[in-house]
Amino acid sequence: MSHLKSIDHVTYACEKGMIEKWAWFHIEVEGGTLIKRIDDVNPDGKSSMKIWCIDYGNFGIALIEGIDREEKSQVTAFTDLHGDHSCQHVAYDCYSLDKFIAHMKTLGGHPRGDVIIQDDGFGILKQMFAKGFASGHAGEATFPEYCERPRNASEARDMEITFSEMAGEGFYAQVQKAIEENDTTPFFDFKKMPTDWSVPPVQEKTGA
What is the pLDDT of residues 99-140, one digit of tens each? Predict the structure, then answer.
């Protein structure tokens, strides 16, 4: 059974001075709606980033742009390596984030940090950021995010209560911590993949 429901949002990293142009593209060309704009997520930090959230109804796009101060922003490091408007991460909506994390860990997966509950611009949610798909500098890595949004008003209230009681660090802080600790380990090590595993046969898609 699939643990993933759909793609929740895609985050693109923009080169310096390009976030406005890509916002224009996603809003005016594609028809998205700007629903959140933060021009400095870490105003007292040695580095930071901008984040603008654009909604399409069934999914969203987040644009980020690095702010360099005493040190280079991890977003700047990412665009230096991958280029402008490069996909930093895709967020997958889970049926149950807790069940998925437990399952993923038994097979060899490694989160970047603890589960966060926050309002990410598209609404309240639980989210977990994984380490990079490949080993290396945490700020330069492409990685997955897994999240869960409330399915009803009761779940939304529970998440909002938890959100108001916790001071969870965002993914910028989690990645920054990994950079400072020189954590270059990847999301999966594949040691628990069975040596006799083979690709299952293709299954035809059933009708709606």
Answer: 999 999 999 999 998 898 888 777 788 999 999 999 999 999
Q: DSSP class of residue 88?
A: E
What kind of fold does domain 4-180 have according to CATH? 2,3-Dihydroxybiphenyl 1,2-Dioxygenase; domain 1 (3.10.180)
**Which of these, 164, 169, 125, 163, lies nearest to 147 by C-alpha position?**
125
The model's pTM: 0.89
The token duo for 57 is: 């109804």
Torsion angle (degrees, nearest 10) of CA 182, 102, 170, 24: 110
Q: What Rg, from alpha-carbon coordinates, does the chain have? A: 18
DSSP 139: G
Domain extent listing, the chain = 4-180
